[in-house]
């Protein structure tokens, strides 16, 4: 199980939730595999209560299936939920990038600029996991600048469905194109050009579409 340290001000339930989600996205916990709250609690040095609470939250998102008297299982991937997550992301992020144009300031400009610079650095070194982290951070920063962090948290919960598929299809998404997109989006937001920023974001999000048939062929046991 992939484990990182508990964050400052992160309670036990949120820590368990973050770690279980991260392992599901990374496919350390594969679709269809069983999850023992006892084993997860031991790995994270937690009691079983926050782990159970985290599993219940993930069950609401349809990422975990809980069978009474039988335990919890990582849900198989439902492609309709993947597509719904992408739809919600497109609606929210094209609106958020417009709002960010109205609220951008010097500090926010520096945060976005630093993020894109780091993306270019890790792109050259081909550190794909770090690129994915910076990709996620770039989009988080836009929500933060727009003052829409609650919307971000709502979207992030749904994106677990897509993030699993994205992780399976890393080779189909071109890092160079994504980093160039982020550069152009940053420049449009910096220059307060909402129409251009929205168009660029819509084009950018369409790059994340993966070949469903190819992913299903490579991972036949992971899908409903």
Helix content: 55-70%
Q: Report the sheet with the most strands, covering strand number, pairing sense and barrel closure.
A: 3 strands, antiparallel
Approximate shape: globular
Structural class: mainly alpha
The poorly predicted ranges are: none
Strand share of the residues?
A: under 5%
Structural account:
The mean pLDDT is 91. Helix 4 crosses helix 7, helix 5 packs antiparallel against helix 8 and helix 6 packs parallel to helix 8. By secondary structure, the chain is mainly alpha-helical. The chain has a three-stranded antiparallel β-sheet with strand order 1-3-2. It starts with 11 loop residues before the first helix and ends in a 6-residue tail after the last helix. The protein contains ten helices and three strands, in the order H-E-H-H-E-E-H-H-H-H-H-H-H.
